[in-house]
Amino acid sequence: MVHADEIAKLCYERFNQLPRRGKPEPGREWTLLAAVVQITRCADSDTVKKEVVSLGTGTKCIGQTAMSPKGEILNDSHAEVIARRGCIRYLIQELNRAVSGGDSSVFCQADQRGKWRLQPGVVFLFFTSHTPCGDAAIIPMIDSLSQPCPPVLSVKSHKENDGRGDLKRGPEEPSEGKHIKLPRLDLEDGGDTKQSLLPNSPKSEDPSQSPSAKTPGPSDSAGRLAPVPDVHRTGAKCVSGGPADPLHPGLGYHSTGVLRVKPGRGEPTRSLSCSDKLARWGVLGFQGALLSHYLQEALYFSTVVVGKCPYSQEVMQRALVTRCSHVWDLPAGFSVCPPELLRSSLEFPFSQAQTELRHQAGQGRISPCGAAISWCNVTERPLDVTANGYKHGVTKKALGTAKARSLLCKLELFHSFLSVVAATDPGALPDSLRRTELKTYWDFKEASRLYQQAWQQLHSQAFPLWPRSDRDLLLFR
Ligand SMILES: [Zn+2]
């Protein structure tokens, strides 16, 4: 039905068609790509239309003190979040068409007053070039080594082979430096430390050749060091208030199935990992609180496709699906709607691994690209390139003005939403918007009662440690 490679190809091609602004420098910079693909099955024929409606790149996230009480900055510029916010822009445009009496390829009238639903045959699919950061990235090495991904070399052979000496990092940690501390697996008997394995760097030999790799345990009966199965590490820290990572060698390094904040060096961020956000969208939908006013049913991704990278089906299932699968008692229009999880064999040409392969001497240090690109299928200003949460290349003087704002920031999306409300015939307004005292962004989000009820259920049943948003940062209008 859905071919993962076909989807990946579509998204990479869409990326190739974009202008250069904000793209990584080939061979030196890498980035992550995510996209929302709309699939439309035409009722009267067998044709299926697949088109990218939103695409995002990015690896960064701002620190918490940079957050804006005016809603002017993009807090989270990971590709997945950029792609989802671009999709919201697209949905707002389509909703605007629908409420104005025009033709929308997405929405048609639902039976409740003022409410809309997806056109028959329309589904949305999510693509990400890499396993989402956070829980889904904590992949046992055995799993990922058995997959066709670039081999992870031991420190020794790595140095011998290419002389660069950079340790391969885990599958993510976009902005975390290469100098991550790797705890050594030291021998208890003070034996030959040359045999110590760096837990992040298992030998590149065929894991099937080392049967002991399948069972955890630092030493065999003779006291020799046995290869310890390890996990890909994440720089994403557990949210506060819950258990921390045990940091044991090997598989016990991380806690699994827990909420994490986005990885990054420097000041801590308040944004949760992409694994957590994707899990949340599987229950609340990806449309957010504002659009929920107009929708009879939440919008769910039917499928999540991941590009070629270290990947584990079980871990993806745990991170995106199992953590929320028991949630019940959701209000009308919401349900636990886990996506089908697929993986593609096609790698994003600007992935970290590809960039390392293409890197040439004299090119300078490999680093994540600082810019985030958003493109979405809207008629006005479809492209939005940002850095540090503001428009790319904006001068300091322009900060605080509309010129500096991304079209994906809270304030801009709020204003676009208000233009839909203004375009709606008062008699056709959804009930939840019929109160006149709604003024701020916070007011409009809170008034989305069913969405808030669904969030309360998800929060209490699955994610009690998910930090509540700070009201003071949401009172703009
Ligand atoms: Zn992420």
From TrEMBL:
Reaction(s) the record says it catalyses: adenosine(37) in tRNA(Ala) + H2O + H(+) = inosine(37) in tRNA(Ala) + NH4(+)
GO biological processes: tRNA processing
Coiled coil: none
Enzyme class, UniProt record, top EC level: hydrolase
Assigned keywords, A-Z: Hydrolase, Metal-binding, tRNA processing, Zinc
Extent of Basic and acidic residues compositional bias: 157-187
Region of interest called Disordered, as start-end residue ranges on this chain: 152-272
GO molecular function: metal ion binding; RNA binding; tRNA-specific adenosine-37 deaminase activity
Domain A to I editase: start-end pairs: 54-454
Listed Polar residues bias regions: 193-213
Function: Specifically deaminates adenosine-37 to inosine in tRNA-Ala.
Protein family (similarity comment): Belongs to the ADAT1 family.
Name this polypeptide is given: tRNA-specific adenosine deaminase 1
Organism: Zoarces viviparus
